[in-house]
Amino acid sequence: MDAAQHKLPYWRLSGFYFFYYASLGALLPYWGLYLDSVGFGAAEIGSLMAIIMATKIVSPNIWAWIADHTGKRMAIVRFGSLAAAICFIGIFFTVQFWWLAFVMLLFSFFWNAALPQFEATTFNHLKTEIHRYSRVRLWGSIGFIIAVWGLGDVLDNIGMGYLPTILLILFFGIWVMSLLVPEDAVEHLPMDHAPLRKILSHPAVLGLLVSCFLMQASHGPYYTFYSIYMKEQGYSLGVIGTMWAVGVIAEVLVFWGMHRLVPVFGLKPLLIISLLLASLRWLLIGLFPANGAIMFFAQCLHAASFGIYHAAAIQLIHTYFKGRHQGKGQALYSSLSFGAGGAAGSFLSGYAWQSMGGNVTFMVAALSSLLAVFIVWRYVEDKPLSPLNTGR
């Protein structure tokens, strides 16, 4: 092991990802089912899920501005993690729609502040070895798998009413892990950067951000209604949890080998491949939901639609945004893709689901990711944008 690898706080970084994505593994697959169990309809569920995504439009950018001017990224991660856990306690008071909307707004404002700054912290610890990011991030996928796989049968036996308690425990786990990650590697950032407005006006950057928006919008029906969709087809919660887990296992395998794929294929071709396979995935889910074998294969495509996509996109963001703009770059990626894209996808899928049904909604999702293919092919550059980094 070389010196750079030896200094990397691998297990502390990985531990944070583990708990963060374990909470996501409990929230995304089962929160819609929980809301359904307490009497909400498709449009209300879509709206409540959209709130979680929508706060990513604003929250990461506010905290990124503070982090990039203070260098205290981990202080923000710790504060956001603790505040999110405390705010989530409000879930236990009542299940009235507007109260839940308020609690989810407040909780997710802080919860969504943590991850982009932690991503920037991870890249700073990795220094010149950013291709090793996926080897750290894969522990997040493992946390997701354990949560989603374990909770299916557990909730089948004890009832959906215990989900908020399980989530609260995981949210406090995120905060505890944040206390273990050192701050020192991110306090002195290089200052060789162009003005932010110049970076954002570059066609490659705009193309990447728009394609990320479309890709995450295409995930809206999946993250909001996939579990409900599968339950309507007669699958048990245990099988549904297994289906989610299969997707993330495939994602883990990709993260494990991504550092080898990037030098061979390049980031842009990998991004295009991931978008094409995402379109195929949504088509299969929309057309053949009752076929267990096809659904299993569609879940394996999560390796591309999230694993390859996220690893390629986040490395391109890190390439485009230099110096003290690193945190802003990660925040913009989070807010415009997982935030605006995810919120638009969740919100619109609620109404589409109600009026057109699940099959058509997933086919519309396939068109969204297919449009992103053209944008990446036309505008995204698979190399550092030197004029952005030098200020010329």
Brief synopsis:
By secondary structure, this protein is mainly alpha-helical. It is 82% helix and 0% strand.
How would the blueprint of this fold be written?
Elements: H1 3-7, H2 10-37, H3 42-70, H4 73-88, H5 97-126, H6 133-158, H7 163-178, H8 196-200, H9 203-218, H10 220-232, H11 237-265, H12 267-287, H13 292-300, H14 302-320, H15 326-356, H16 358-379, H17 386-390
Helix pairs in contact: 2-3, 2-6, 2-7, 2-10, 3-5, 3-15, 4-5, 4-7, 5-15, 6-11, 9-14, 9-15, 9-16, 10-15, 10-16, 11-12, 11-13, 11-14, 12-13, 12-14, 12-16, 14-15, 15-16
What does this structure look like?
The structure is a single chain. The protein has 17 helices and no strands. By secondary structure, it is mostly helical. It has a single domain (10-390), classed as Up-down Bundle (Growth Hormone, Chain: A), CATH 1.20.1250.20. It is globular.
Name of the CATH first level: Mainly Alpha
Radius of gyration: 20 Å
Number of domains: 1
CATH architecture grouping: Up-down Bundle
CATH topology, anyone?
A: Growth Hormone, Chain: A
Indicate the percent of residues in helices: over 70%
Oligomer: single chain
Shape: globular
Unreliable sequence segments: 1-6, 185-192, 388-392
Q: What portion of the residues fall into strands of 2 or more residues?
A: under 5%
- Measured between the Cα atoms of the first and last residue, the distance is 39 Å
Helices and strands, in order, run as HHHHHHHHHHHHHHHHH
Structural classification: mainly alpha
How many helical elements?
A: 17
Write out the CATH superfamily name. MFS general substrate transporter like domains
What does the largest sheet look like?
Answer: none
Instruction: Provide the residue-averaged pLDDT.
Output: 85
